[in-house]
Amino acid sequence: YPGLFKALVRLFRKPPADPESDHWINVLLLPKNVVLRHVLRLRKELYGDEKFLETPPQCKLQPKRLYTLSTRPGRESVLVQPKEAEFDAESYDNYLPTFQVVYENFMKYIKLSLRDGGSNNVWRRQVCLSTAGVRRSYGPTRQNVGPSEHLKEIRADFIEGISGPVLKSLLDKLLEINVLSDAEREAVEGERTRREKARVLVDMVRNKGDDASSEMIRSLCELDPFFYEHLRLM
């Protein structure tokens, strides 16, 4: 298609202020050469409580062409606004949302599809919406626990159950998002067995506190949703 530009779809989730408030996902359509750290810095300055949702962002869009965003679950439980919007190939400074996705009840996953005027899918992803950063209620006999305590509780199952390939991908991911340093990653990989690597990793991350533990839980959700559910991390 002539006139197509390489572009990025960036997602930011705004957690509800209280249990009665709505959840928001801000969807930004940006030119490919926009630097992510600049987007993160400005969005944090403007909306400090947002959570960046990392998912493969690449697509090809046509400037000034109208696009629509659809979701699954659909319109019965999710509102997308506006109904259609143009891609601005010169949006280098504002980093404002092109679409907003609003929903009431927590979902573990949401599927997002970006379509052009001819209803062709130009970008489609399943997005993990982890509650890792939110304290959860386990009923009247149990106090709420944070992410680091939660990792401690599922520690044994994590060590026994995580596969070698997922463990390697998790290490790569935690290094990429600066939860682990190069030296820490090498220390984990220096262990002889998969179980020992998993043990060193989970203890290393949970000892860093809730922020690091939250990032590990979210990353695991993206890499292996089935194991994530098995560990009852949702």
From TrEMBL:
It is found in: Cytoplasm, Cytosol. Pfam families: CARD, UPA-FIIND. The keyword Acyltransferase does not apply. Gene3D superfamilies: Death Domain, Fas. Keywords: Cytoplasm, Immunity, Inflammatory response, Innate immunity. SUPFAM superfamilies: DEATH domain. Residues 1-141 form the FIIND domain. PROSITE patterns: CARD, FIIND. Residues 151-234 form the CARD domain. One of its GO terms (cellular component) is cytosol. InterPro entries: CARD, DEATH-like_dom_sf, FIIND_dom, NLRP_Inflammasome. It comes from the Eukaryota. GO terms for biological process: inflammatory response; innate immune response; regulation of apoptotic process. This is Caspase recruitment domain-containing protein 8-like. It comes from Fundulus heteroclitus.
